[in-house]
Every structure is written in C-alpha cells, then in structure tokens.
Write a structure and sequence with these properties.
mainly beta, 2 helices, five-stranded antiparallel sheet, single chain, Immunoglobulin-like, 2 domains, five-stranded mixed sheet
Amino acid sequence: MKNHNFKTTYLFYMLIAFTIFCTGCTSNIPPIFPIITAGPTSGTLLIESGAETTFDRTPALTLYSDGADYMSFSGDGENWSEWVEYNSFYEGFNMVDNQNGTQFISGLKYIYVRFKDENGKLSPSDNLAFDTINFEFKDLNSIKIIPSEVTMTIGSQYTFEVKGYDIDANEVPLDGSLVIWEKCCGVGSLSNTSGLTTTYTAPTVAGERDIIVNCGPLRVGAKVIVVNELKDILLKGE
C-alpha cells in the first residue's frame, strides 16, 4: 500500500512539474505573424529627358519604382496598356494611336505609369507618376487609298479610305474638307466626293476601273476590278 501511495504522489508531482515547464516554454516563444510587404512605390517618369516638344510617337521614357517587377502605361490615367517587364528605360508606348487613353491629334500629351510586383500588388492608384510633353506631327508627305486594289461584282459596293503619311511613313491626320474623290470612265458611282472615306458602287458592266483621291497637291489612285460573278473573283485569286 505504501508503495502504491508513493507512485501516486510521484506521478502527481511529475504532472505539476511538466505543466509548469510547458507553460514556461510557451510563454517565452514569441508569436509568429505573416510578413506583410508593401507594393511598389509610385515611382517617377520622365519623357525624352525633360524635352518640351517631340515628333516621336513612342518617346524615350526614363522610369523608376522601388519594388516593381512590371509596368503599364496610359494616356489618360484610366485606360491602360498591357503589362511589360519593369525596366528603367522604355520606348514602346505610342502616345498618339487612339489606344490606351491616347488621341490621334497633336498638342500636349500626358503619359502615366503604374507598377506591379510579382505578387500582384500595385503602386498607389491615387498617386500615379506622369509627365507631359508637346507632340507635333511631321509634315504630310504622301497619301494612300485603303485598299489600293479590290475585286468586286457588278452592282456591289465597297468603302475606300484615304490616309496620309509623313516622310518616315508614319500616319498623320488629314483634313477631310481638303480631300476630293474622283472616279474615271464615267461608270459606277461614289457616295460622296469629299471626306476621308467614300463608298463606290460598281457599274453593271465588268471591267477595270480607277478611283482617284486628291489632297492638296497630292494625288493617288486605286484599282477596281469589276467582275460578273463571285466565281470570277475566286478565279482571279488563283
């Protein structure tokens, strides 16, 4: 009986000691919290090293953001380009192509940039980095009818467009009031003779026709091949 009481007492004190030991250990271990990292900084953007005016549609951009892995650009701070890998120098954003918040006109241009890290965190949207620059188109050097050649059936219609280009073959805006359309041979008809587009209605007689467009001293033509049936178009394609 004494031996049994001794074992019971021994186990009781061992349990107390174990409890105190465990409590002491856990109280000395600091809690572990997840590390929360901030996203990229708003950063900076500089267009053409601070120049006031440029003819370049995709100007040189100098950039910086701490923590950035990707970057995206906009002409209005709302409509954005696709993400590209972060780099401190970039020349791939077109600020006059009517995309990503840009407009196909000359004048003061804004370029905004936002950044993203590899975890998907963005730079502050209420503090976007941006810069401005005046953009001017180069002088008009040539014009072109789009398309320059088309095959169509008798009596059908096709819409043509005229575009202007500078000496480097970059598109420049045209004044539609200065554009005059003509058709030769006195056959077929045009929906209008002024403006940037016109719709040609083919005559009822097959043959080759020409459409002419004038813009100031510049003049260019497009070939229209009128055929009797659709199968003739397929044969010409062969």
